[in-house]
Amino acid sequence: MTQILPFPTDRHAEVHLLLPWYVTGQLDAVENALVAEHLAECGACRADLVQERHLADAVARDTGETGDSWAAMAARLDATSSVSVATAATAAPRRRTRDPLRAARRAVMRPRTLRWVVAAQFVAMLALGAQTLTQRSDGQPGAYHVLGDAGATRSGNVLAMFRPEASEAAFRRALQASGARLVDGPTASGAYVLAVPGGAGGAALARLRRDADVTMAEPIEQAPAK
């Protein structure tokens, strides 16, 4: 009888590749939970997550220069994704219900295109933030700032995530115990921007990290005021 041995997976490498889509809320529920669970125990990936947030600030400063290049890049990515999906469907017809999406994702993960894709996604997030701010000024409830919003970046200094099953009472208790204040969120990926006394080296951040309902609490590098 033939024994089938499973191939080991590199969870760290897999999460590292999924971080750009995690930041922009593009993952499905299973992948989102996988990344969140890994972030709770991997400091290196949490540091990478903070860098992805920093990329949002850089894109926000250069938004005016991305219009024409975005249209050209979008057309090129659409063509690349179409070719990858067609190839995956031909090579493995028995898995065509899942393979096309994975093939398309692998296509844009090449080093030459990955950063451009992430930058484009942050431009889209900023556009969504502008739209929600406009809706708020018109009196429509339920709008909130994205992390790329300049006001949230200036007043918040910590990026935090909580256990999905944490109650509102637990959320408030964690903030009160550390003296933190909610500045923005939640985003599509479930992150919150907090104003934490003392910043990166303060006792408040250390206490927030020790809270059982907090899965991640990382300082945000502040851009100089203009």
TrEMBL record:
<dbReference type="InterPro" id="IPR041916">
    <property type="entry name" value="Anti_sigma_zinc_sf"/>
</dbReference>
<protein>
    <submittedName>
        <fullName>Putative zinc finger protein</fullName>
    </submittedName>
</protein>
<dbReference type="Pfam" id="PF13490">
    <property type="entry name" value="zf-HC2"/>
</dbReference>
<feature type="domain" description="Putative zinc-finger">
    <location>
        <begin position="14"/>
        <end position="46"/>
    </location>
</feature>
<dbReference type="InterPro" id="IPR027383">
    <property type="entry name" value="Znf_put"/>
</dbReference>
